[in-house]
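[scheduler] slot 2 assigned
[scheduler] job type: sequence-to-structure, two independent chains
[scheduler] chain ordering preserved from manifest
[runner] begin chain α
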Amino acid sequence: MIPDHLFDEGINNSLLQKDMKHVQQNRTVYDRTQRDYEQEQRDLLSSQDGDTCEIHDQFYRDHKLLLVLFRALAVMPITRSRPGTITFSWRSRATMYAICFYIVTTVIVINVGYERIMILRSIRKFDDYIYAILFIVFLVPHFWIPFVGWGVAHQVAIYKTNWGKFQVRYYRVTGENLQFPNLKLSIMIISVGCLLLAVCFLLSLYALLDGFVLKHIIAYIHIITMINMNCALWYINCKGIKIASQSLSECFRRDVDRECTAKLISRYRYLWLNLSEQLQLLGNAYARTYSTYCLFMFVNITIAIYGALSEIVDHGFGFSFKEMGLVVDAVYCSTLLFIFADCSHKSTLKVAAGVQDTLLSIDVLSVDRPTQKEIDHFIQAIEMNPAVVSLKGYAHVNRELLTSAISMIAIYLIVLLQFKISLPKA
């Protein structure tokens, strides 16, 4: 996050004071417009002030429900401990609840996992063995919650807090509060949908797959809901970045059309850099969470597709219940993986596109030399800070991730099918 003093220097155009000195000397107090006065009042605001952040943090108010649900699932025990600040503490009530909830659900998961392992040990056929592993794979995400949830809670709290700071700075520069139309309603629908989708998915597996016992659903329900909610959380974060990018570019074009000055370009350059940092911080804060999320999806899709292909090889295109269940699993996980990669791709496209179009549309011959310099600096800043969501360098989250996943899954499927063909038939 750009420190407040550097941001203030940037938006106040301190780097161009020498170039603009002759203009300021000729300017009197009577030249001040109402717009200048309002700008001066906004510049008195500080993004470090919690009460100010609380007033302008519309993003937190809109997606608060999602954070509450994550606390209820004991996945992300972060809280709004004081105005404008989200924190994580091992001694907080939210963390104590998360630990207790996790212990109870761990007992249930271990009991179900033990039964699944006993079934696995009794299997001798290779295809049935791979098929039985699928039920155990679905239990694995429960055991990495302390690592990918609580372990990154501090970084996530910083990311969420920085959203409030960014919105204060957005108001200082544009004169408008950042709004997220229909985001709150979307989150309510998505949250209910995640739970219903988890229930429907598990019931479909129970109806279609042999060996999936109805009583075992109690061990899987919170895991599948958590997986759905993680996808929803990423989608909402990316949508927030996308909306902020579109709003920033619209305000930038409006202000440039009204008055294109070096000071204006400089202010928007620092605001855009702040937004670009938010995008980078999103990937860094959730790196553990979504790295393991992708690995889980890759393994699950590979096993499900192999199981379905194996059934087709052995019995032809009969579309038995087992094949349909495996196809449902593969399609379900593939859809979640696609949403995860696609929403990142769409949000990154919007970060620089609108601002860059406005900069390139400015007639540089009609503006003064300091403004030309600022336009060059802004374009260079965009080129040196490409809009990419990186999971701490392990992977870039965009549509290329999907093509890489397809290639990797195809390789493993070929190996498994070759291994199957080489086995002697019973």
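[runner] end chain α
[runner] begin chain β
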Amino acid sequence: MSKSVARLKSMKKVADKVDHSSKLRTNIPAGMAAAGPPLGPMLGQRNINIAAFCKDFNERTANIKPGIPLPTRVKVNADRSYQLTIHQPPATYFLKQAAGVTRGAMLPVKETCGKITLKHIYEIAKIKSQDPPLEWRPLQEICTMLIATARTCGIEVVRDLDAKEYGEFLEERKQVIEEQKKMLQEKREAKMLRTA
């Protein structure tokens, strides 16, 4: 009987050491971490010093253009300290920047919001290969993933791109976006009338 009690006590000591804290996963704009919502409450729930975290994050991202969304992982330790991991900006951000568009397509497969070349895909893949989750993946696999992501954003991947033709395409696209915004506004107004 005493052996089983001793065994249970030793198991309890091991069980106490297991860490069940979850990682905080969020996108924070570079150099713009602030104590206000939504970041402040997320850090407060995990007992992290909000002011110190914001200062640390803003110092680490000082060399990056302000406002770029950065996927951030925060591992909280038992003594209220934390390990901060900052990844490269999301693939969709790079793809939209390369295509010169601010928003993706509303109907991704049916409409095209922009075009990029395979060279753009390769350059983005080289940048994204520095991320911890993609470190050990081959560049070809990352390129395939980026092409799929571009398709879901409504960005077409082409071999060659003529600057003049693409400029005309973007001008036509601006008119389409304006029409879509008007249509969305009309839907919102119609919904407001129904609920009132």
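[runner] end chain β
[qc] chain β: The chain is about 50% helix and 15% strand.
[scheduler] slot 2 released
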